[in-house]
Write a structure and sequence with these properties.
- Residues 6-418 form the TRAP C4-dicarboxylate transport system permease DctM subunit domain.
- By secondary structure, the protein is an all-alpha fold.
- The chain has one domain (55-425).
- The protein is 77% helix and 0% strand.
- The chain has helices at 2-14, 19-33, 43-51, 58-71, 74-86, 93-108, 111-129, 133-144, 154-163, 167-195, 208-214, 219-233, 239-256, 262-295, 298-308, 313-328, 333-350, 355-370, 377-386, 391-414, 417-425.
- The longest helix is centred in the middle third of the chain and has 34 residues, at 262-295.
- The chain starts with a helix and ends with a helix.
């Protein structure tokens, strides 16, 4: 049955069938050939039960928040301000790519949206200032992955929903690893460009007067992040309520920057509906597929198989990590999460690992999937913004940052406190 699932999933995706539809088709097939119960009779009830969750309401709000910030052009002013603070390091403007992606990750909740917004602003600078296209574009692709780690994260909301774990605790757990990854990306950039200066562009130096003046473009975004995340952490608001407040804050920021228009609002709402519909179709399809898998006894069989191998908990965890690395090369990231979570997470918890900690470990592996070929979504988003050259250049440029993610995976396994210290200290 596992062979049927993997081959069927990859085969249907290769036919360019939408992911949500693929998950339903696989569920129908497993129900017909492997399940002992006529699950189709309960399909309507299952779809309603899955979608009727207050936790999921936060998703369209966070998407709308990101859409407003991106479409109002605030990314351009943020990028310009961060250029004045970080471009003095070896690598120059590449650090502004990563810093801008980090800041937008703290508001958008989406890796693809973050990569797209930074690409649109940054790419014209690469050619004008003579940057190596590989490193410049690879840094944007890697920085964009932070959108699903640094809170608020749509993927962490989905993980919390599927595992019935605390979303505020997940947000807390993702903050330090997300910031450490951003620092790691910048250190990797500085190290490479110190060894090979030709890969980076000119180091740009600005006076403190200019830097202080640029803060007016950064403070509103930082205040928005503190408002959203702080209200969640201190129990003032639920993630859904905080997301709604964030949308209001994003509108106020757009107005204060003179970027507000009804056309922008319309485009943001339409974009939100499209992205939310795609996410919900995947979540509902995955819920149906996982229900059929449970009915067919896959979880029990997989548990018995791993137990029969006689592996230690750590070795079993490393096998799961390897599985995610391989599957991430071929399966879209959100789909990978929602398909595997109901099967893998119970096994991981049974081995004695913390469900919050594993959620952060999984997100790092999913981030890696966003920039590993052949199905690394951020690679294609950045290449689309480039509009020239080959996508192989973006892939090569992202490779050093994949190594940083491997280091983070090892660090999380060796020191779970990296993810668990903040949630435990603020309980």
């Amino acid at each position: 049955m596992m062979t049927y699932l993997v081959v069927g999933l990859l085969g249907l995706l290769a036919l360019t069938i939408p992911v949500g539809i693929v998950l339903f088709l696989l569920g129908f097939g497993i129900d017909a050939f492997f399940s002992a119960f006529p699950l189709m009779k309960g399909l309507g009830r299952m779809v309603w039960a899955t979608s009727n969750s207050s936790s999921l309401i936060a998703i369209p709000f966070f998407i709308l928040l990101g859409e407003i910030l991106v479409r109002s052009g605030i990314a351009r002013t943020t990028y310009s301000a961060l250029d004045r603070w970080v471009s003095w390091m070896p690598g120059g403007l590449v650090h502004a790519n990563i810093a801008t992606a980090t800041m937008f990750s703290a508001t958008s909740g989406s890796s693809v949206a973050t990569a797209a917004s930074v690409s649109t602003v940054a790419m014209p600078q690469a050619k004008a200032l003579g940057y190596d296209p590989r490193m410049f574009s690879g840094a944007i692709a890697a920085g964009g992955t932070l959108g699903i780690m640094i809170p608020p994260s749509i993927n962490l909301i989905v993980y919390g929903f599927l595992t019935q774990s605390s979303i505020p605790q997940l947000f807390l757990a993702g903050l330090i690893p997300g910031l450490l990854l951003a620092v790691g990306f910048m250190l990797m950039t500085a190290m490479i460009c110190a060894i090979r200066p030709n890969l980076g562009g000119p180091r740009r130096h600005f006076g403190w007067g200019e830097r202080i003046k640029s803060l007016k473009d950064l403070v509103p975004i930082l205040l928005l992040f503190v408002t959203i995340v702080g209200s969640i952490y201190y129990g003032i608001a639920t993630p859904t309520e905080a997301a709604a407040v964030g949308v209001g804050g994003a509108v106020l920021i757009a107005i204060s920057f003179g970027k507000f228009s009804w056309q922008m609002v319309t485009q943001s709402v339409v974009g939100t509906v499209k992205i939310t519909s795609m996410i919900m179709l995947i979540v509902i399809g995955a819920s149906f597929l996982n229900f059929t898998l449970a009915s067919a006894g896959l979880g029990t069989k997989l548990d018995a198989f791993l137990t029969g191998l006689g592996l230690t908990p750590l070795t079993t965890l490393l096998v799961i990590v390897l599985m995610y690395v391989v599957l991430g090369m071929f399966i879209e990231t959100l789909s990978l999460m929602v398909v595997t979570i109901p099967i893998v997470v119970p096994l991981v918890v049974a081995l004695g690992f913390d469900v919050i900690w594993f959620g952060i470990l999984m997100i790092v592996l999913v981030e890696m999937a966003l920039i590993t070929p052949p199905v690394g979504l951020n690679l294609y988003v950045v290449q689309s913004a480039r509009g020239e050259g080959k996508i192989g250049q973006v892939m090569m440029g992202a490779l050093p940052y994949v190594m940083v993610m491997f280091v983070m995976v090892a660090a999380l396994i060796a020191m779970p406190e990296i993810a668990l210290w903040l949630p435990s200290s603020l309980k």
